[in-house]
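Input set for joint prediction.
Command: fold jointly, output tokens.
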Amino acid sequence: MSYKCSRCKRDVTLDEYGGVRCPYCGHRVLLKERSRDVKEVEVE
Amino acid sequence: MTEEYEVEFVDLGEREATFLVRPITPAFANGIRRAMIADVPTFSIDTVRFIENSSVMFDEQLGLRLGLVPLSTPPGEFEEGEEVTLSLDVEGPETAYSGDLVASDPMVEPADDNIPIIDLKDGQRLELEADAVLDSGREHAKHQGGVAVSYRHLQTVEVVGERGEFAADDPHVLRGVIEEQEADAAADADAQNGDLVPTDAFDNDLTNRYPEKELDVHDIEDAFVFNVETDGSFDVETLVLEAVGSLETRADELKEAVQL
Amino acid sequence: MMVPVRCFTCGTVVGEHWEEFKARTREAEEPEDPEKVLDELGVERHCCRRMLVSHKDLVDIVAPYQ
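tokens >
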């Protein structure tokens, strides 16, 4: 799972054991980046 | 069993018009109105593929905004259900406008170019591909070609006497179109009986046109004044003709179906 | 957030008038009377007028929090 640290803005990869925490700065707020897929939306 | 209808334009612009049709019944007038709203197909964006959207609005919100942009629809060129692809690619800092949509078919393009879609800040980007589909207002309001389509009776004003000497000096407000019948009493010297006069010509106040008279206003039973506006997909003339055409097609279909 | 593309009530396209309306009534050195501007833009009905008169762009306010 790839995230971005909200404080240092670096890409973070989480594994099962590390918990939710940025390995570079220790910040605990991570943001999930938008996927690179093309997203199809039905207009209603 | 062909009947003749008289159609007279009071005002004709590209996107709005006022016209009189007579003699027709209220049912037929309403049929025309409904056909103009629900049965004349127009192009509208229906599916959007977002390749990149780093703007402050969600994909779905932008999809909704794109769907409401009117697209020009040439009559008779496309079948209902046909699709045209449009694309948009704008990078901030800039505002993405409806005019930035590029269509694969030059006949289908945004009717208004300066509708803001989204304001993009530095580093934000919007790239998308959209499919516009031809469908009718019956399916979704975004496919309505006519907006604010209405009708009302043609009215006429009868002079029944002189205004009383001590009568209150109130305005006599009337909105719509009147057919002149009392040209002699009208303040306008060029007035002739049979003229069609929109009430805003005399500020919607009958006392301006017929000063010092006591008046009686009647509806003319079989005459209807239509007020039609389009969203820009086509001009008013196309809208009205297509609507009446669709009524005719359906009437013919019914006739065929009933005849054994 | 952004101006509505169409009037909620009648469906007339109002978004196309927004930039001119904003420039003349809110951002000009000497702001004009909104009533006059709307009349000149051809936004006639009160349902369409309220769409522009009561609108506030919020993109600039939200943008830093993305």
